[in-house]
Write a structure and sequence with these properties.
It contains seven helices and 20 strands. It has 295 residues and is of the alpha+beta class. The chain has one domain (3-290): Clavaminate synthase-like (Double-stranded beta-helix, 4-Layer Sandwich), CATH 3.60.130. An eight-stranded mixed beta sheet has the order 1-2-3-18-8-20-5-4, covered by helices on one side. Strands 17-11-19 form a three-stranded antiparallel beta sheet. Helix 1 links the parallel strand 2 and strand 3. The two termini are 32 Å apart. Bound molecules: succinic acid. Succinic acid binds at residues 91, 106-107, 113, 124, 142, 271, 273, 284, 286.
């Protein structure tokens, strides 16, 4: 696949689900020409999840490629930002001298990255350095659920009910829940809570900034409450929408290989990591590209 100005053709293989495509024969260690970059961007809008297979990328190359899509974000858990590369966040269960070198519980709940910020993430790029495998089976898959297709199939009456509703997305609520459920991260102290981002309010149904499609933009990981409706109704609607997004027909499961760079659109998909591999190791590094204010 390539457009007129592209110097590099590449092999794009859509998955058999509603989101996702694999890309072969494209070396991201060198800058892409503008034509190839436009073709990759168009594929990103079309498929929402792109798996660039067989890469060998330095931190600098990953940062340079990510920056072509926008400004990079620095994760608030700075203890897991890679030394010398604050834009790279470490997702890992490896301990060095008894201490975690990365976030060991990232992706425990279905979520959209950094939706707790006023300007959330557009694209996340996760690079696989260590992938767990047992008896020839790859473990630690990442699942993606399409939020546009799952919106499209909602009944018209429900779509009308959701119009104009806004919801609270909370980093601190997620932190407390993970600390109590998994015990990998410390308990949230008042001091930590003050230093972390304040809750952000976003539309329950969001319009994709590039494709114009409507997407469900509440997730079990961060969304705590729909505003301006009774609490019981908020709970009922959130449960319904969380279940709608992750129906099997909207889900793609990515089975990792070392050297994959996986890039996803946080408006068009939500994701979840599988935790089926302990005591084996899994080590990934992520950059996130800032998006726009949801509308
Ligand atoms: C994340 O939530 O960004 C991490 C996903 C993963 O580790 O598969």
């Amino acid at each position: 696949m390539a457009d007129d100005d592209a110097l590099q053709a590449f092999d794009l293989r859509p998955t058999d689900t509603r989101v996702g495509a694999e890309i072969y024969d494209l070396d991201l260690s060198k800058p892409l020409d503008d034509g190839t970059f436009r073709a990759v961007s168009a594929a990103f809008d079309r498929y929402s999840v792109l798996a660039f297979r067989g890469q060998d990328l330095s931190p600098e190359a990953r940062i340079a490629f990510s920056k072509r899509f926008g400004k990079l974000q620095i994760n608030v858990r700075s203890e897991f930002n890679k030394a010398g590369y604050p834009e790279i966040y470490t997702v890992s269960n490896i301990l060095t001298d008894g201490k975690p070198i990365g976030s060991g519980d990232a992706g425990r709940y279905w979520h959209s990255d950094l939706c707790y910020l006023p300007t959330p993430t557009r694209a996340s790029l996760l690079y696989a350095l260590v992938v767990p495998e047992r008896d020839g089976v790859t473990l630690g898959n990442t699942l993606f659920a399409g939020t546009c297709a799952s919106y499209d199939t909602l009944p018209a009456t429900l779509k009308r009910r959701l119009e104009g509703l806004r919801a609270v997305n909370s980093y601190n609520a997620m932190f407390e829940r993970k600390a109590s459920e998994f015990g990998v991260r410390p308990k949230l102290t008042d001091e930590m809570a003050k230093s972390y981002p304040k809750d952000a309010v976003h539309p329950v149904i969001r319009t994709h900034p590039t494709t114009g499609r409507k997407c469900i933009y509440v997730c079990e990981g961060y969304t705590t409450r729909i505003l301006d409706i009774p609490e019981a109704e908020s709970r009922e609607l959130l449960a319904l929408l969380f279940a709608q997004v992750i129906k099997p027909e909207y889900v793609y499961r990515h089975s990792w290989r070392v050297g994959d760079l996986l890039m996803w659109d946080n408006c068009a998909v939500q994701h979840l990591a599988s935790f089926d591999y302990a005591p084996l190791h899994r080590h990934m590094e992520r950059t996130t590209v800032e998006g726009s204010i949801p509308f």
